[in-house]
Amino acid sequence: MKKDFCAHGMPSAQCLACKASARSSSNTTRVMRRLSNTRQGRDIASRREGTASQSQSPPVLDARQAVIERIAAKHAIVRRRDWGLLSPNYTAMDTDWDYTTVVIHHSGNGGETNPKEIESKHMTEKGWEDVGYHYLIPPSGVIYEGRDLRYKGSHVEKANTQKIGILVMGDFESNWWDADDEPTAAQLTSAGELILTLKLEFKTLTLLGGHRDYKTTTECPGDIMYKQLGTLRKTTSLGGP
């Protein structure tokens, strides 16, 4: 009878190397069969066959979020999530964008200079969904993020659409009992620089006004701050209301 010889020159039935190879192949087949019954095994098998599904691409950064992040980074803004004690109710707020106007406010007779006081006044006392202003600037000149720019503010009664609200914190009416009648140089500098950045980010932004320009029954932003708006318009090349 004719014998079959392997690649090693030995009869196939007698070659120990071939038998070892056969056992290894058999073991591999059994392992792969067990793996195929698991999720990991299916993934391995899929990759071996070149049909593994590709991993999801990283999420695309929302364009509006990118604008917010650029502004915050440029001015080292203290983010709402870092200073706030209360959580905004985003589902209850209207969205907004394509801003045309910056509106300057002051804290009024309360004279609050701590953003947490404004948060408490707006969200706890008044029951609002969030702080009404988009940005708050205490006497130090540090800028605090208020309401997310993607949401309509609550700072100009019945006329908030396309208006960015900036609160310069303090009471800027000339009262004998006040010690904070005038905004600090740091506040004015920060406000001007922030407005310039907002103008770069929103090509639709053309106007700068005080709260009283849109609500005749209020003194806000106070006589002293209101007199500063002409200078702010000049330095930012924005028009009046």
Structure in words:
By secondary structure, the protein is α/β, with parallel strands linked by helices. The protein has seven helices and five strands. Strands 3-2-4-1-5 form a five-stranded mixed sheet, covered by helices on one side. It is globular. Mean pLDDT is 83; it is low at 38-57.
Which key features would you list for this structure?
241 residues, alpha/beta, 7 helices, 37% helix
* Binned strand content: 5-15%
**Strand arrangement in the largest pleated sheet:** 3-2-4-1-5
| Structural class by helix and strand composition | alpha/beta
Percent helix among the residues? 25-40%
Largest sheet: 5 strands, mixed
Summarize the structure.
The protein has helices at residues 16-35, 39-48, 63-74, 80-83, 115-125, 185-201, 223-236; strands at residues 101-106, 135-137, 144-145, 163-168, 207-210. The chain is an alpha/beta fold.
List the helices and strands and how they pair.
Elements: H1 16-35, H2 39-48, H3 63-74, H4 80-83, E1 101-106, H5 115-125, E2 135-137, E3 144-145, E4 163-168, H6 185-201, E5 207-210, H7 223-236
Helix pairs in contact: 1-2, 6-7
